Amino acid sequence: MPLDEFDLIQRYFTRPVGNTVLGVGDDAALIAPTPGMQLAVSADTLVEGRHFFAGCDAEALGWKCLAVNLSDMAAMGARPRWFTLCLSLPQADPGWLAAFSRGMFALADEHDVALIGGDTTAGPLTISIQIMGEVAPGLALRRDAGQVGDDIWLSGCTGAAAMAVAQRYGKLQLGASDLAYCAARLDKPQPRVALGLALSGLAHAAIDVSDGLLADLGHIAARSQLAAELRLMSLPLPPLSDEAMALPALDRCLLAGGDDYELCFTAAPAVRPQIEQLATALALRLSHIGQLKAGQGVTVLDANDQPVRLPYTGFNHFA
Ligand code: ADP
Ligand code: MG
Fold first, then answer.
1. 119 lines ligand 1 (CB under 6 A)
2. Ligand 1 within 6 A of 9 CB?
3. Which ligand number lies closest to the CA of residue 129?
4. Residue 197 has what pLDDT?
5. Tens of pLDDT along 158-190?
């Protein structure tokens, strides 16, 4: 029997939901936010051929669509709780739907977020998720909250996802183990939700690195009306072979490559010990990569603290 719209929703996207008054199946879902908390709401769309390669693995895609949304909650210091899924599909392929929903729900279960509704249409493959989370009043990690003298921090490392993209476009050639690492970074990003929650009340500004470190740090600088100084020598490097680290594309991938979904945040120098403890507690590298100062824009400093001129920024649709 062919799979129609309602069978498809019932079979692949309807599960019992614990933290919800009314989930999939009615004209709208009903949720009961925790009294006194603010709702953090965000949406992200992934379009085939633009955000992911046509024919890519459906399970990884299901994971990634939710991961990029969870990353926005992390960047706000919010606890993710509910999401909706708007799917535009060229056809109702049971194998694809089973794999996609498996990948998506695996990550949803890790973070205890519930799929509460959505919309399903026929059309070019596009996946749009809206996510809702909770944060205590005054504790969200806003882009405009950076302060003069703040340390700039980065979780994990950047660059590897962009190297996997470059390899897939035939622009560079990675060895098998480098490629495995970079592809996992691109296809299965780990949203830094626990870090975001721990930083709420400790850090000032935060953003998730989706369009490249320079561009995303630039958003913190612009919204905070400050200048950001980034020390090239302090940037954490991905764990790749010497051959990969010698590729001419490396600097560009580190500074302007997208899709890493790490957190870049700012905090007062006084809380350095707490942030270092957090790195240990979360088993996550946290690197102090620069400072916020009076002024504007992002400056990259070399080993002699001299500004470096760079021919690139980050990704920008329509630019
Ligand atoms: P409406 O006619 O009100 O737009 P739909 O027929 O589109 O409702 O959807 C029926 C129910 O299924 C709704 O509760 C909707 O939220 C849910 N739904 C539709 N598509 C999805 C999806 N991809 N994932 C989860 N829930 C979905
Ligand atoms: Mg509908």
1. yes
2. yes
3. 1
4. 98
5. 999 999 999 999 999 999 999 999 999 999 999
In sign, the C-alpha dihedral spanning 176, 180, 185, 186 is positive
Mean pLDDT score, 33-60: 94
pLDDT at site 202: 97
262-274 residue pLDDT tens: 999 999 999 999 9
Ligand 2 centroid to Cα of residue 86, in Å, is: 9
Residue whose CA is at the smallest distance from ligand 1 atom 21: 118
Query: Which atom of ligand 1 is least distant from the CA of 26?
Result: 14
Residue 313 pLDDT more than 80? no
Tell whether ligand 1 has an atom less than 6 A from the beta carbon of residue 7. Answer: no
State how far the Cα of 286 lies from the Cα of 235, in Å rounded to an integer.
10
- Mean pLDDT, residues 101-116: 97
Residue 31 CA to ligand 1 center (angstroms) comes to 16
Ligand 1 near 87 CB (within 6 A): yes
Q: Please name the residue whose Cα sits nearest to atom 19 of ligand 1.
A: 119
